[in-house]
Amino acid sequence: MASVLFIGLGNMGGPMATNLIKAGHEVTVFDLSAEACAQLRAAGAGVADSAAEAAPGKDYIISMLPAGKHVAGTYLGDSGLLALLDAGTTVLDCSTIDAATAREVGEAAAEAGIGFMDSPVSGGVAAAAAGTLAFMCGGSAETFEKAKLILANMGKNIFHAGPPGAGQVAKGCNNMLLAIHMLGTCEALEMGARNGLDPKVLSEIMLASSGRNWSLEVYNPYPGVMENAPASKGYQPGFMIDLMAKDLGLAGGIADAAGVDNRMGKLARAIYEGLQADGQGQRDFSAALEQYQK
Ligand code: NAD
To answer: What is the CATH number of domain 169-293?
Structure first.
């Protein structure tokens, strides 16, 4: 069993750390929120007064933080954790952040002789609790082998996307495509419904035809078509519009850095940022359907 320092115990990090405890690992946690730490203490974790105090000597450091600035602040600089570690520790950042920061932390870790992997996830809060997340990893093959041993306790699909930053690029590509096919699915369903079709029947037709996609298959955005989808529960998340807008901003940065014309991603971003500006950020991202009904 491994010794782990887990940093960032929010909606995702809390259940992920809990799954590591359940798997028998020796887990120490740190979060700026005392309440989040107390919940993990009750689940069996040790609680550190600071990340720096607990980091040296751990087999793994795993972070699940809001954005690139939090990850850079945690690992880089004279007071960052990389300055305190040696080659015995593997660092896995599971946060969704910009690829440039992930590469910067990866390069700093390599210079210090420490294995680092950006390992963002797909799957959301329910998958974090169930231990069925998908991890998209960026780092060396050697670090990936070590990462798999611990990530397997929190997820079921673990991919090696390439060098540092590649995990964030894969995540950006995936979530941009998710936004685009969700919006396309909303548009097609409303178009059919307003032309007299039953959205349930239209969904069955498209599922058996070339329009088939994940949004139709497991997350139908039309209320009443799929009993357990957020659309049938008043668009309670699920996956919040705020998070989709964040991910589309990151995807835009990835496209721009490589000079890619991502006009579909930009349009999706404008639509989701518009919904945010309407005060809908906390609703599920499939609520985009309603904009076609106005
Ligand atoms: P959250 O806001 O619920 O949790 C973030 C936690 O980090 C908070 O508890 C906060 O106190 C803590 N934190 C912030 N700065 C810190 C620091 N410097 N040191 C220690 N703790 C600190 O966020 P979340 O929903 O758990 O998301 C975490 C990451 O996972 C984000 O990057 C998000 O984009 C990504 N993600 C979220 C989902 C989802 O459905 N919620 C799905 C996939 C990926």
So the answer is: 1.10.1040.10
